[in-house]
Amino acid sequence: MIYFISNTKSLDATFKDATIDDVVEYCGSKPVLGVDTETEGLDFTSDKMIMFQIGDKDNQFVIDTRFISIEPLKDILESRKQLKILHNAKFDYKFIKKWANITMENVYDTFLAEKVLNCGKDLRYGLGHLCLRYLKVELKKEVRMQFTTIGGNPFSDSQITYGAKDVEHLCAIRELQLPFVESLKLQAVVDLENQATLGFADIEYNGLDIDRDAWIELSKESTKEAHDIGVNLDKMIIIDRQFDEFVATYLQGDLFIPTSELRDVLIKWTSPKQVLAVFRKLVPKLENVNGKEMYKYRREFPLIDRYIQYKEKKKLSTSYGEDFFKFVSSDGKIHTNFNQILDTGRVSSSKPNMQQIPANNKFRNCFVAPKDWCFVSSDYSSQELNVIAFGSKDPVWLNALTNGQDLHSVCADLVYGEKWYAAAEEDCAYFVQDAKQKCRCPEHKKLRTNVKTVNFGLAYGMGPSKLADTLSIPLKDAETLIEEYFIAFPSIGAFLDKLGNYGKKFGYIKTFPPFNRKRWFPEWYPSIAKNKSSIKELSSIERASKNTPIQGCSADMTKLAIIKIREFLSNNDVPVKMVMTVHDQIDTICDIKYADVWVTKMTELMEEAALAVVTNGLLKSDTNISKSWEK
């Protein structure tokens, strides 16, 4: 039965009129409820929630929130005992929080559950797609679009029905999803994602303040740097006779371009097609200037290296120029949108992509805390390395992490042997009282960098070619370095081989307990190992199988940390807000007077989350106070 709650009566006799008290009375006794909203648009800071729907498969209540407050439902929506089913819960949650001042708890997101079941693969996850997939029901898109232009007009019968059916469909979809979740033993991951989504929603809701003036200055600086590199590229073309065809024989004047800006070079450095024609003089087989292929030639050809620098500066001046302000909402803040589940369990963000903000603190420092508040940010110290050490049980790694030694230096010592000892200078910090700390010896720095690249590369399935490109060394040297590395650390090699073989054998890989997140490989089939033409697919599966548990475990514990922080903030009236997360770092803003107390508590919560996955207790969190956002 559909009940309609508004200041006007419905014309359709099949709908029953009701009051908000009727909604509270019915829903207050139900352990599981479907919840949905209809809004004027997508921006919760300015577009209003105009309809709120709640109920179960038997009865659905459609509330016209333009005239009726849902504040009486606060206890139900904030209850940790009653489960609320939503689809893309972050979206509805932010509107409910903004326009009804209600902070939801205990949700089940059909959108996230479906992504867990498909390990974030590129499928269609809209409610309409799930209705077709599970219920063989097609939602009417034209009705949904009507809500954005309805204004103050009464809801039509079709709109009321549409809103009610969403609630009914949510309840039905969950019932059909659960058997799959249980049979695949994914309940722990689904629970993790459902709890974490409220934390991600809070981060999106709270947003970040941006110092516009500082940002504009950085944009100007990047634009100038890109221009200067462009001038340098022109000079490199002019002095090299093999590029004569790209140099003008005379300058053509233009009334609208100052003489100082006229160029001898006929190449537009922002045109990939024109740049490719130039670079084919150096590398005839080069196919494009946008892919990774070009990067392996940068150490051989200074012109290509300089062009890559140009591209990097140009991206800063465009992606992070004044166009960035289009993402500033009506409240003057940046509110990113998180894609909560990629195939490894990691998170991405968009509009804007805060995961790609340049790592140097110049740009990050443009995001500032309000007056009398500060940032308190915490990140895991060598998170992925700890995951590898825990999974492989390598005695050298575990000993180094236990005793606070510099892991990269310890690894370099074992990989290079006599070469490492011979490179030591007087008073080398690594050898002082056998402390094995990072030192300042120039040769040690080079060797340490090589091994550090391998250490971190393990988490991303790095092979010899990538290592050679990264370190700008010959492929043969990269192959030798990796070979010597695994001779020094056989348990790590055995651990990674075990993961790779598992994925090839079973067609999926999973993260460590307690979550056991699974990633399936669509290209896998039972007889793939016997198929001689499957080498490429098997290599891809093997690489992903080595990489996913490391990345996925890291993602699991960071999400658990977000849950624990949100739970603490919900249960304690403290002046703290979560405002961002990037990889293994969680950022909050806090009243300056509470900062020292919060540093201690936040560190404790981060390390509690780490202990659930890396149970040896070696993974620690580093928490700092700053006035602006920092890496």
CATH top level label of the domain at 2-184: Alpha Beta
CATH architecture of the domain at 2-184: 2-Layer Sandwich
Secondary structure: helix percent: 40-55%
Question: Taking all residues together, what is the mean pLDDT?
Answer: 92
Unreliable spans: 253-260
| CATH structural fold name of the domain at 2-184 | Nucleotidyltransferase, domain 5
Query: Main beta sheet: strand number and arrangement?
Result: 7 strands, mixed
Approximate shape: globular
β-sheet strand percentage: 5-15%
**What is the topology, as strand order, of the major beta sheet?**
2-1-5-4-3-6-7
Characterization of the model:
The chain is of the alpha+beta class and 631 residues long. Among the domains are: 2-184, Ribonuclease H-like superfamily/Ribonuclease H (Nucleotidyltransferase, domain 5); 212-324, no CATH class; 384-509 and 529-540, DNA polymerase, domain 1, CATH 1.10.150. Helices cover 47% and strands 13% of the residues. It has a 7-stranded mixed beta sheet with strand order 2-1-5-4-3-6-7, with helices on both faces. It is globular. It starts with a strand and ends in a 5-residue tail after the last strand.
